[in-house]
């Protein structure tokens, strides 16, 4: 197992596990000798997450002329992240990058993980890039009818059905897609900017690396389930009911194929790099950058994921993603975002669970521990 610091491989290390109070069970773990791991699979079985007590208060860190955390990660952070990764079952990816610095840490940082709704961020960026180029306006109107509805979480659906259609601006679609993770708003925005190929072109143009974009919510989710999309699935729980009638072998084959080569896959390191470049103003105009970061700060989903691990005084803008469940296993449980310390130092933080059967509180506890560790070691 390898970490990466400023693009150079560094031998991963372990450290003694700490105790998480009130979240998951804990047990003392004796750290093995320092050695390079040749496996990337975390231990199976019930989760015992070695998590230090969450940090709940922090004062601004006084920094001298030379910030020791600028060029290299704080001593101990690497070991803490590895310990957290090592103790969590399933396929887990972690990446942390100092936005206003020169270092990055990652576990399974180069492997592809299902993004699910994390990919809404690339749709928003594509739309704002089109705004920057004058091809789309933020006040441009977009009609949404019953034929545009998707599935799963789509608060817009009830209004569309009640009124026959709704008209929203591009600005409103971005806001709804990011802050409420509304699938219909996102697919409507996607259609407006030119479909999946437009997003793929943006990713390629900006050289974002190992980030894929799927076919849109309806085809992504139906394909993962082993179904062929029908618009009738957008009504009520019709999709879930159709999925339940499939032979188990069909569902398993579809899910296995998706996990083996996720059409919406992205690597934690690539996402952390993209967040860093966004925050630095290297992807969009200053106006669009400021706008998108502000929208991300109002995200409502996942309040108990990464955000909950940060102390008072820290700010966090983020995007979550959660995939379908199959026999207790979730294909994609993610949170990615930008944490800002009280002194203004910024970090890109990415936690992606590609496959996990751990209870949701334990998943959230892991994420809180990762963001808490970043805050704890900040300024050291």
TrEMBL record:
Reaction catalysed by this enzyme: a beta-lactam + H2O = a substituted beta-amino acid
InterPro entries listed in its UniProt record: Beta-lactam/transpept-like, Beta-lactam_cat, Beta-lactam_class-A
UniProt-listed Enzyme Commission number(s): 3.5.2.6
Family, per entry: Belongs to the class-A beta-lactamase family.
Keywords assigned by UniProt, alphabetized: Signal
Region named Disordered: 30-50
Signal sequence annotation: 1-21
Gene (name only): bla
Domain Beta-lactamase class A catalytic residue range list: 93-352
The keyword Repeat appears for this protein: no
Coiled-coil region: none
Source taxon at top rank: Bacteria
Name of the protein described by the UniProt record: beta-lactamase
SUPFAM superfamilies hit by this protein: beta-lactamase/transpeptidase-like
Compositional bias (Low complexity): 37-50
């Amino acid at each position: 197992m390898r970490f990466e610091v400023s693009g150079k491989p560094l031998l991963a290390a372990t450290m003694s596990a700490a105790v998480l109070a009130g979240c998951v069970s804990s047990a003392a773990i004796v750290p093995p000798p320092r050695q390079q791991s040749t496996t990337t699979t975390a231990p199976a079985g019930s989760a015992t997450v070695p998590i230090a007590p969450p940090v709940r208060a922090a004062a601004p860190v006084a920094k001298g002329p030379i910030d020791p955390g600028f060029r290299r990660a704080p001593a101990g952070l690497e070991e803490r992240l590895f310990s957290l990764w090592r103790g969590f079952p399933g396929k887990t990816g972690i990446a942390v990058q100092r936005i206003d610095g020169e270092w990055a840490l990652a576990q399974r940082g180069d492997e592809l993980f299902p993004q699910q709704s994390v990919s809404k961020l690339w749709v928003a960026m594509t739309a704002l890039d089109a705004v920057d180029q004058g091809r789309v306006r933020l006040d441009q109107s977009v009609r949404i009818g019953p034929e545009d509805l998707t599935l799963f979480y789509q608060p817009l659906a009830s209004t569309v059905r009640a009124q026959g259609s709704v008209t929203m601006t591009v600005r409103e679609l971005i806001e709804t897609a990011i802050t409420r993770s509304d699938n219909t708003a996102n697919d409507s925005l996607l259609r407006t900017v030119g479909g999946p190929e437009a997003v793929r072109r943006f990713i390629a143009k900006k050289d974002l690396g190992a980030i894929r974009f799927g076919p849109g919510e309806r085809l992504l989710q139906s394909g993962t389930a082993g179904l062929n999309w029908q618009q009738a699935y957008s009504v009520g729980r019709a999709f879930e009911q159709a999925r339940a009638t499939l032979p188990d072998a069909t569902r398993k084959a579809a899910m296995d194929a998706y996990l083996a080569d996720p059409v919406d896959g992205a690597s934690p390191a690539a996402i952390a790099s993209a967040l860093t470049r966004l925050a630095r103003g290297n992807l969009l105009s200053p106006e669009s950058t400021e706008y998108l970061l502000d929208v991300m700060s109002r995200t409502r989903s996942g309040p108990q994921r990464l955000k909950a691990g940060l102390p008072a005084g820290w700010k966090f803008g983020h995007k979550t993603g959660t995939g379908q469940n199959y026999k207790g296993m979730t294909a994609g449980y993610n949170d990615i975002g930008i944490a800002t310390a009280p002194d203004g130092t910024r970090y890109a933080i990415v936690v992606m669970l590609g496959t996990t059967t751990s209870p949701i509180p334990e998943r959230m506890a892991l994420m809180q521990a990762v963001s808490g560790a970043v805050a704890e070691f900040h300024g050291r």
